[in-house]
Amino acid sequence: MISKICIALLCISLLHSCAAFSWKPCTDVESKSSIKDVDLTPDPPFPGSTAKFTIDATADVEIGSGSLDISVAYHGFPIYSQSQDLCEKTACPVKKGPVIVALEEPFPIITPPGPYTVRITAKGKGNDAPQLFCLDVDFNVVPQGSRAQQNIQPESS
């Protein structure tokens, strides 16, 4: 009886961890901002969905223009990277103080379920330009139609 309870608690714990994402500032890179919060919608993402990352930070420097670099790892293996114009994701120039960066990434319908890490880096243009922020976001992509995906509330218009 006790082993059945332990198994049930373990299953509940695993299901809960599948639905939650986590984030942390990069430990190997110096940034010129502090990140207050990161939001991921839907949580968890699923094949065919568009993940919306919203990063709430405070900039310590001004950046006229720059890039937003994204790299994706699946089970720890790099699978995708791209660079986008920072000014398409936030207002430029980025002034000292509060800054919100919004990023949308579509997940193809063939996206395999499992653990992903996305590194998002915002930096100014040029070799000597400051790095605004760097963060790692860990999450699980769940199969479409799974219980974790069904618990997602529809967005209100």
From TrEMBL:
SMART domains for the chain: ML
Gene3D superfamilies with a match to the protein in the record: 2.60.40.770
Record's keyword terms, sorted: Lipid transport, Signal, Transport
InterPro entries named among the record's database cross-references: Ig_E-set (IPR014756), ML_dom (IPR003172), NPC2-like (IPR039670)
4Fe-4S is among the record's keywords: no
SUPFAM superfamilies according to UniProt: E set domains
MD-2-related lipid-recognition domain boundaries: 23-139
Key word Signal present: yes
Example of a GO biological process term: sterol transport
GO molecular function: sterol binding
Subunit details: Monomer.
Function per UniProt: Catalyzes the intermembrane transfer of phosphatidylglycerol and phosphatidylinositol.
PANTHER family, per database record: NIEMANN PICK TYPE C2 PROTEIN NPC2-RELATED, PHOSPHATIDYLGLYCEROL_PHOSPHATIDYLINOSITOL TRANSFER PROTEIN
Protein's name in the database: MD-2-related lipid-recognition domain-containing protein
Taxonomic lineage from the root: Eukaryota, Viridiplantae, Chlorophyta, core chlorophytes, Trebouxiophyceae
